[in-house]
Amino acid sequence: MYEKILEAYFRFSFHRPKCLNVKRKMRRFKRFLFIILFIWRVVSLAATALAGPPFLTDDPEPVDFKHWEAYLFSTVDDTSKQTDVTGPAFEFNVGALPNLQMHLVIPMAYASPTDAPRAYGLGDIEFGVKYRFIQETDHLPMVGVFPMIEIPTGDADRGLGNGRAWWRLPLWLQKSWGPWTTYGGGGYAINPAPNQRNYSFGGWQLQRDFGEKLTLGGEIFAQGRSSDDVRSFAVFNLGGYLKITPNFQLLLTGGHTLIGGSHTIGYLGLYWTGGFEKGTSNHTELRSASSVSQKEQPH
Q1: Is 68 in the same domain as 84?
Q2: Model confidence at 289, in pLDDT bands (50, 70, 90)?
Q3: Count: domains in the chain
Q4: What is the residue-wise DSSP string for the chain?
Q5: Is the pLDDT reported for residue 286 higher than 90?
Q6: Are both 38 and 54 inside the same structural domain?
Q7: Does 23 lie in the same domain as 132?
Q8: Same domain, 152 and 86
């Protein structure tokens, strides 16, 4: 029954001759729907939790009060038109108040378009504030907001920046069950730069701890058109965290688009954490920050 409904939908939506490959579009849609349903089923059966980088999807958990975390990382986004690399990039997050985190990213950027000279230099600096306003309970998820501004410090004429300040306004949720954690949400980006667009974005991630050293997870992240010449897309991303010492970890992800504009993406990073107060333990669980997360998400 659902196959007939899907076929009728695609025949109606893509009635022009160049879009009449109904069966191929149905297969793509069914594959995407299956992945969504599979993740939802796993989450409903199961899912303290590591979150945020190296994934695109972020979480609502701020750094603990009077604690800090730092990332040294690099990202890549390869498309048919251009390869964008961020790195080295430095991210610093600090628990300024209970339930409130300050966030800063200073990146170096590399742009390699197919029709213009390559460029390397300082990219746009990111500043944000994460605020958790609902604590997680046995029955309720944790909820928080993470507004961010991209400051136009990169040279837009060389493809290293946006040219104007722009904002992202997301809402994130998170829930944990034993070794499982799941988080996600979405929001809206406001970009007033020439040839750029406002767009919505969102994602959902599921991960599992395998002992005390290793965490593996996957996500689906989707984004609308961010500029006049970029298509919307949905990407499937896999990766995780390897704990080297109690306060030092290795982070890695890689993924590719499921539908929409073609993107091959990756993240490689090092993570440190600690506390400011004398006698404070440096052992703080890896949680979130939005690094590649939205900050360096595919455009």
Answers
A1: yes
A2: very low
A3: 2
A4: -HHHHHHHHHHHHT-SGGG--HHHHHHHHHHHHHHHHHHHHHHHH------STTSSS--SPPPPBTEEEEEEEEEEEE-SSEEEEEEEEEEEEEEEETTEEEEEEEEEEEEEESSS--EEEE--EEEEEEEEEE---SSS-EEEE--EEEE--S-GGGTSS-SS-EEEEEEEEEEEETTEEEEEEEEEEE--STTB--EEEEEEEEEEEETTTEEEEEEEEEE---BTT---EEEEEEEEEEEEETTEEEEEEEEEEEEES--EEEEEEEEEEEESSTT--S--------IIIIIT---
A5: no
A6: no
A7: no
A8: yes
State whether 30 and 57 are in the same domain.
Answer: no
How much is the pLDDT for 279?
56
User: Lowest-confidence range among 18-32, 130-144, 174-188?
Assistant: 18-32
Residues 10 and 122 in one domain: no
pTM: 0.77
Distance CA 177, CA 208 (A): 10
Q: Please tell me whether residues 19 and 39 are part of one structural domain.
A: yes
Considering the domain architecture, whether residues 75 and 167 belong to the same structural domain is answered as yes
**Which pLDDT tens digit goes with each residue over 238-279?**
999 999 999 999 999 999 999 999 999 999 999 999 998 765
DSSP strand pairing (248-260 vs 142-145): unpaired
CATH code of the domain covering residue 193? 2.40.128.130
The boundaries of the domain holding residue 37 are 2-43
47-96 pLDDT tens trace? 334 457 899 999 999 999 999 999 999 999 999 888 999 999 999 999 99
